[in-house]
Design goal:
The protein is of the alpha+beta class and about 450 residues long. About 40% of the residues lie in helices and about 15% in strands. The protein is built from 17 helices and 14 strands. α16 packs antiparallel against α17.
Length: about 450
Amino acid sequence: MSRISKRWAVPIALGVAAALTAAGCGAGSRTGAETATQVACDFTKPAQPVDVDVLAYNSSAIDPFTNTMVKSCSKDGVTIKHEPIDFAGQVQKTTATLAGQTGTYDLLETYGFVVPQYAAKGKLRPLDEYFAKYSGEYGLGELNAEMRQAMTYDGKLYAVPMQAQMFVFVYRKDVFEKLGLKPPTTFEEMRQTAKKIQDSGEVKHPLALPLLASADIVTAYDAALGSLGQNLTDPENRTANVDSPKSLKALEELMSLKPFMDPEVTTFDQPAVQQQLYNGSAAMAMMFSGRMNDLVQPSNSRFHDKFAFAPPPVVDGGNVRYNALSVDGWSIPQNTTVDPELLFELIAASVSKDASKAAIPAAYPARQGMVTDTSSPYAAAATESIKSAPPAEPFPWTAEISNQITPVVASVFIGKVTPAEGTKQMREIADRILNQYR
């Protein structure tokens, strides 16, 4: 996931946090088609019928925007098609559709983490011309400028932001109150808290994290490394930090949480973590804020009124939290055969004022001034979370390195290789990628 630069985390907290709720990443939406709202989508009717295929993963924070686009813009000869898919599937299909002369999809839900990689390779269409043309009609100037910057590469806009998301710590307040516990502020406190819950017999595996070996685990590693004050790479020198002492410590800190988590944790994505909270097999968790709204719905869990929220802890002192900040938005692939101006109007309609308002409280809209801190039980936690996140790394090699070191991080976590050997392998992978940019 893309991380928002520390230099503009506070402006977001002050400017956009008025629009604060939650967002999410992964699969397993609990937000149905009823989240669609009817908004203005006043494109010029095309001369011939047009099918528009949309690639967007299903989550409670993304679905309101996708559903609204489908409902509002499927008219006048335009048919918008969207099939349910999880985040891992979206990643695979994005790579496939951008690889050929023509693609399968005409609109892509994307995020700031991968924009530099695809933009640098000419896979995405710059949107500045259309943004300027339709800004007045759709109020695009109200989209947070820093979020637009997160979707920019080399001075050009490659995606229109719809929402942001950040890590939030969620816990069972009834369990914490019974044992006299408080939300942890460091990993050490989190281990102590988990052990007390475990020793009490309340919950056998009290901590839940999304550590899916094929995806989420590298986000966790990067979040831990960032909290320790180090980026994945040194962009000026085009060198990697994956074999540094802090990298080693990041891996060790993650591994130190294993005694308090389900043994199958490397098979858990965010929906699986949600399920642990729903059924009471976990008492605390950290994941993207878009998953929080699902937890407080009475139809999802008997514990819906027992959840409380806090900002994530730091790993080992300091002011940077174990966190990842991401901006989600819409991109137009270069290889689509559909009129890009028509596609842009579909995008603009889906992030309009009415559409953004309808996405609350499941999403954290990119449109400013939408929601107050009191509009959701986790808004205050998200506000604090966004203020102290690791800096962004908006470089074309970042996503490539993260993707390719993922299996190594997983191998270290499960004990297949030692942390020292793992960091050595990660450095070799990173160097091969960085050599292409030197």
